[in-house]
Specification:
Elements: E1 4-9, H1 13-24, E2 27-33, E3 46-49, H2 55-63, E4 67-70, H3 77-84, H4 93-99, H5 102-111, E5 119-122, H6 125-128, E6 137-141, E7 151-154, H7 157-163, E8 171-175, E9 179-191, E10 194-197, E11 201-206, E12 209-215, H8 221-237, E13 242-251, E14 256-262, H9 272-275, H10 280-288, E15 302-308, H11 311-317, E16 325-329, E17 340-347
Helix pairs in contact: 1-10, 3-4
The chain binds adenosine-5'-diphosphate and magnesium ion.
């Protein structure tokens, strides 16, 4: 077998889990991150740290690899498209550009006749006054948000005025969905109508950060089928290669909405490591590196708990886990509030 070296941009826990999976497939990994303390350096074959605009460093990285992928969305489009001239970047840079912009992303989804919550672009304070029917809502930065960062719940025009937000960066106002549940679908697309799709995963957030995931999701057949169908249309329309996650809302009237798309492996899919024959990470590598597609088989029901901030401390002290428990410490240098530090998956 010819030896493959994969470049991964981004050095967080998703990068670590991709690197671990790669080892199993005999794929070498080189991680590039702008954070010199990136935890994924503990798991990859070689680590390069530099800014995402540093042409020299990026070149050094690209010269060492056969393919390039990424584990987070906020990479300058310029950088990805320059790399793509030298080595294949998958998913394609244009996919990343579309999805890293909340407005373009939502327009794209609606053009597929797939429901999202109602939304409008907000560029100056006077516009809010004409958007009262989107309240209560959530104001979100159009770019660079994650784990609820850059989001403001807005109940009234007065509340908006009192927040004094600088809107020049570009914002989107979304109508608040009265949530019954949140689910996600993880799909790995290999080629035209060739994909592996996982069953819907049920997710619970706390403070806009994912806290729990489980399979099976407690949903009816209509939602089960529709969420899968929508995820497939999205992946096909994007001509996507690799693993993608679609996050959904279900409202109290049992309507399904797409919340957002993550053009990468996803936190809610950590349980696929232990609950399926092939994890979302391995599937991503298989698709991006052109390896064989293996039919998915579910091995077990499962639940996953994210360990946020100092919740990790108690687990670090444990020396033994039950046979059906799988603890993962991301080895982040600093424990910070609201930071994902590790997770534990339990097969049930
Ligand atoms: P992030 O990019 O930070 O993941 P999301 O848009 O997915 O941002 O928001 C994070 C969480 O906040 C969602 O999973 C959901 O729990 C809540 N949330 C966000 N937007 C809405 C909305 N329009 N209605 C109801 N809940 C929302
Ligand atoms: Mg989200």
């Amino acid at each position: 077998m010819s030896e493959i070296t994969l470049g991964i941009i981004g050095g967080g826990q998703l990068g670590s889990m991709l690197a671990i999976s790669a080892k199993k497939l005999n794929i070498k990994t080189i991680i590039y991150s702008d954070d010199p303390d990136a935890p994924a350096q503990n798991f990859c074959n070689h680590f390069i740290s530099g800014s995402y605009n540093n042409k020299e460093k990026i070149k050094e990285f690209v010269n060492l690899v056969n393919y390039v992928t990424y584990e987070f969305e906020n990479i300058p489009f310029e950088t990805l498209s320059e790399i793509n001239k030298l080595k294949p970047v998958l998913p394609k840079p244009s996919v990343n550009r579309l999805i890293q912009h909340r407005l373009a992303e939502k327009d794209f989804i609606n053009n597929l006749n797939i429901r999202t919550t109602r939304y409008a672009s907000v560029e100056n304070a006077s516009e809010i006054k004409s958007l009262e029917d989107l309240l209560p809502g959530i104001l979100k930065t159009t770019t660079l948000g994650y784990d609820g960062k850059g989001q403001y719940p807005i109940n009234s025009i007065e509340e908006f005025d009192s927040l004094n937000i600088d809107l020049s960066k570009g914002y989107i106002l979304e109508k608040l969905v009265k949530l019954k549940k949140e689910i996600s679908i993880i799909i790995t697309r290999f080629n035209v109508q060739k994909y592996e799709i996982y069953e819907p995963i049920e997710n619970k957030h706390e403070d806009q950060i994912l806290k729990f995931s489980k399979i099976p999701a407690d949903i009816d057949k209509k939602i089960y089928d529709q969420s899968k169908e929508w995820a497939i249309s999205i992946a096909e329309e994007l001509k996507y290669v690799g693993t993608l996650c679609v996050e959904f809302f279900i409202d109290r009237n049992n309507n399904l909405y797409v919340n957002e798309i993550a053009p990468r492996v996803h936190n809610s899919g950590h349980l696929t490591i232990n609950a399926f024959n092939v994890s979302q990470f391995e599937n991503h590598l298989r698709a991006v590196c052109g390896l064989e597609q293996i039919p998915l088989e579910k091995l077990s029901n499962a639940k996953m708990v994210n360990l946020i901030g100092d919740q990790i401390s108690a687990y670090r002290k444990l020396t033994q886990f039950k046979e059906n428990e799988f603890f993962f410490d991301y080895l982040k240098k600093e424990v910070k509030e609201k930071r994902k530090m590790g997770h534990i998956t339990t097969l049930v």
